[in-house]
Design a protein that fits this description.
Largest sheet: 9 strands, mixed
Binding site for ATP: 450-452, 551, 592, 615, 648, 728-730, 861, 867, 890-891
Distance between the termini: 20 Å
Protein name: Phospholipid-transporting ATPase
Structural class: alpha+beta
CATH superfamily of the domain at 460-705: Calcium-transporting ATPase, cytoplasmic domain N
EC number: 7.6.2.1
Number of strands: 37
Membrane topology: Multi-pass membrane protein
Strand order of the largest sheet: 18-37-36-35-19-31-34-33-32
CATH class of the domain at 460-705: Alpha Beta
CATH topology of the domain at 460-705: Calcium-transporting ATPase, cytoplasmic domain N
Helix content: 40-55%
GO molecular function, one term: magnesium ion binding
Amino acid sequence: MSQRRANPHGSMLPNDEVMPYSDDETDDELDESEESEEEEQEEAPDHPPEDTARAPEIGWKVKVNDRAYHQLPEFQKKVFLCIKKSRYSGNAIKTYKYNAFTFLPLNLYEQFKRVANIYFLALLILQIIPEISTLPWYTTLIPLVIVLGITAIKDLVDDLARHRMDKEVNNRKCDVLLDGRFKETKWMDIQVGDIVRIKKNEFIPADILLLSSSNPNSLCYVETAELDGETNLKFRMGLRATDERLQEENQLARFDALIECEEPNNRLDKFTGMMLWDDERYPLELDNMLLRGCKVRNTDYSHGVVIFAGADTKIMRNGGKTRFKRTKIDELMNYMVYTIFALLVLVAAGLAVGHTFWYEQIGSKAWYLNDGKGYNASYRGFLSFWGYIIVLNTMVPISLYVSVEVIRLGQSKFINWDLQMYYAEKDTAAKARTTTLNEQLGQIQYIFSDKTGTLTQNIMQFKKCTIAGRSYGEPTTKEGVKLEKIKPVDWGWNNLADKKFDFVDHLLVELIKSKKDKDTLEFFKLLSLCHTVMVEKNDGELVYQAASPDEGALVTAARNFGYVFLSRTQDTITISEMGHEKTYEMLGLLDFNSDRKRMSIILKFPDGRIRLYCKGADTVIYERLSPNSRHRDTTQTALDLFANETLRTLCLCYKDISISEFEAWSRKHKEAQVVMVNREEALDRVYEEIEKDLMLIGATAIEDKLQEGVPETISKLAKANIKIWVLTGDKKETAENIGYSCSLLTDDMQIHYGEDVNTKLRTRQEKRRNEPPSSFRPGKKKPAELFFPGSGKNALIITGGWLNEILCEQKKKRRRLRLRRLGKRQTPSNPQDPMNDWEKEMRQIDFVDMACECEAVICCRVTPKQKANVVSLVKKYKKAVTLSIGDGANDVNMIKTADIGVGISGQEGMQAVMSSDYAFAQFRYLQRLLLVHGRWSYIRMCKFLRFFFFKNFAFTLIHFWYSFFSGYSSQVAYEDWFITLYNLAYSSLPVLLVGLLDQDVNDRLSLKFPKLYLPGQQGLLFNYKKFFISLFHGIFVSLTLFFIPYGAFLQTMGQDGEAPSDYQSFAVVTASSLIFTVNLQISLDTSYWTFVSCFAVLGSIAIYFGVMFDIHSAGIHVIFPSVFTFTGAASNALRQPYLWLTIILTVGISLLPVVCIQFLHKTIWPSVGDKVQRNRRKYEMQLEEEEKKTKPSAFQRGRASRRSAYAFSHTPGYANLISSGQSIRRRTTTHGGNQDGRPPARRRAENI
């Protein structure tokens, strides 16, 4: 639930620190939030107040160790007609689409959704009808079967991979309690209510309620990398009652509790339920749950009961709906098929009318044309219409779709084979998991990126610090002299040091070893004591388990500098101070939370002194410093420098406390601990009393390590006019800090937060309401004025709570729930309502417009559903091509929603990869995927389609011109076999190779000049304009190809005194001219020549002549006299020099305008690509020189920044474990009783 806070005017505003979940909010959450808000005006006046406070209905019941219970009729749901099945899902998962029975019908159904396939099927049916068939039926059937077959095989291969993946997951083994004993069982056979045993380093098979574990107090550590990409451990804990009484196998076998809880949902941060056992009720929450996809760590075994299985688990619920993705070019091609079909019908209708009039005036009167059928002119015109539909169908040849699939497959393989996208450290290559979206990679306008594990490595490293006004961390010698060459510190003097820890300032190490600088010693003592880290020994090595990587980095730094955290109990903490072990009594642990932004520990020293150590954000620490505190200004200067270097900072301070002062404060603290109402606020007030008059020691600076090349990648993509939005569940400070670190945010940007955004949107909304009603109507474009006038750069940082507030999601949910409780149906929106559907849509449009005006957008504390909603808004209102990139299960919904989904592989979590379209190991490979492979794929596909349409218009429209001289009789202008083989063998290979291999500039220049990417974003290379240019080009060429040979044949005499002006010789000359023209035309359009390209052009012409002479030979005519009828036509026609001159003239006139236009374009109106091509040699030399030079450091210091660099990612939790001793106390030998003096389970349940 999104907690809310009051603004100065008293209204309730979203809490920036809390992650809202508007997608699956339960009634009880909304009831709680409604208590502090006014009811909306539309609520019924007679609504009884007790209804709003009614507890939510709990509909999910789980009976432990009772499989038959879940099959009862009350838990059955209707599947189809009278067929019912249990509402409880089995644990088998299914991501595949087909099985052996459904593959053929489903695949054919999906393929015939494509308009072109239906079109070709209709043509095939027409060709079977003898009265209208002008071409043999096999000329359409064979290509159609080949196309459907190739596509079906590709789909089958993809689906078999999904089957294998599902089988691998479903056949994993786990111990399940069956018939009183644990038996090894497949995951797919696990059912709701089963008790399972999970061992160390095993994945959790379902959403499980933790009962007991091998650790004290049933503590269980889990790694959630599959869910959120984070590798730091989180803890879960069983109930005390189950911990004490459910350790042994026989105890677990007798366990018969009934669990009632919330319905399955996608909320990863919440679980509410209740367990009824032995007439006692025990509350359940998320800390008691082990979620599917997590991995058990540092726990030998855990026992749990399955609550949600298979498709009901939270990780599967977060997967989102799988969407069928299509490229913009696919959509354009569909519309163009409609356009061509409309043109085809119009042309065929016109020719049919022409045939009707021709037959009435000429055909019916010519005795030699009488076929004896007795059809009248109108019926003959009707038959002619269908005949021309068949003859002219090659304007959209079926080979187009085969070629497109081949090109896409080839482009996918090039991505897979790209060694520059191979990550050797993890042995991970780039993987194109789809073959249908490659050209869309060249049209991306918006990138939506996760942060943790995508931009960052989620590895924190202690880089610098300032102690008593002096900064450390630059490369220096022991004497403090700066070094040009970095020399890491040798930690050989410290046996307990972490050898992986890197530090370059030798002076600080010498100060520590000398033990002369008291401030330095106190600094690292504070780091080793003030934390909530847990420690364990593994093969004699200390292993720290921190609630956040920040904490781990600071304690590791103290460890290397001689202050080693060794162990802790409930009320003591032991460290090694420069080799001497010391134990301090812990009097209080004031844990971190998002409002306090600090944590403190109160310790009693061995000599009796009481001291408070505190670390936190500079903004909260400086407010609480004593007037006598030194080094304030110098520390602030250092903090500004650290902030400018995008390091994450914490200030360290201390305070000595007298015994009487501590005793007085301790009494207040104990009173606050037992307050029943607003306990957290009461504790915060008590903490405030002790955390004042602090003495500043210094500050730490941690680097949240970015993945290699992230700032350069973001910079390159920004130059390509691609906008990057970061969508993360992290805190606002952390997300903002990473924004600066990766160069997404810069110091010259004006940053706008949720409050500013909401104010601007409300102002725009009020202005719209005051406009006349006719001024704004649904569907009307946005107002012309900008939200941010001026030339300055703007950035938007907004939290999930504000996102809900701005998009009115929470209000919609509350209203729907209230109406449901009243038993009313939601009525259509009234235009007079304060926020009706139209106003809500306009507000969403305003938000998207405002965000798109910004240079950078960061959405933090957002849920997986909100991530997907943001992507959907941009797709919906900007009609933009979007790409989402992430690495965890919380990114899956976003990845599936975007036009292109990219998963980061090579990390621990692979959920995002399994749902993605493309996968690779590092964010930096994204620039190569888009600027090289994406751009090339787009250019190649556009060039291929333009040329394919042109060559088929030129080929087909010759039939149209010929019809004027054949009585509009559906007579074809070529030989049948030429029509069959034209797109298959004579003209396919050169254009196919252009679609596979062509490139205007090489990969290095593509990366050097990101502006080359712009034509793809704007769709300049293939659109309706280009389509009609190809159409008119085809019309011009077809006119030339028909009428020049026609004029040459008219009243002509050959050298031997014979007239070569027969139909067959004319067909040969026209076909030969066409083959020369289209193959030379594609040569003019080829930018990148290889031996293969040259061979394809010459080979296609050679194949044409070779095949033509064969099928025109007398030998084949003798064998198949009715099939091969052009006997000797080629040899007779092509031995005439006059006809060769005709072919040369026809080809020359066809190509001359294209040569002239290309020359003018490249010289007078050159594109960016033309300019780069022209100076290619110069730019390549520049690149070689740049590579020879020494690479500059990744960070370049800019102007000093006054912003806070605080970005601590710690979450509260471990402090409660430590102070309660639950993670430390030893388990008693007997679990059934309470020999250790703890209160019985009944009392524990009542207290909760």
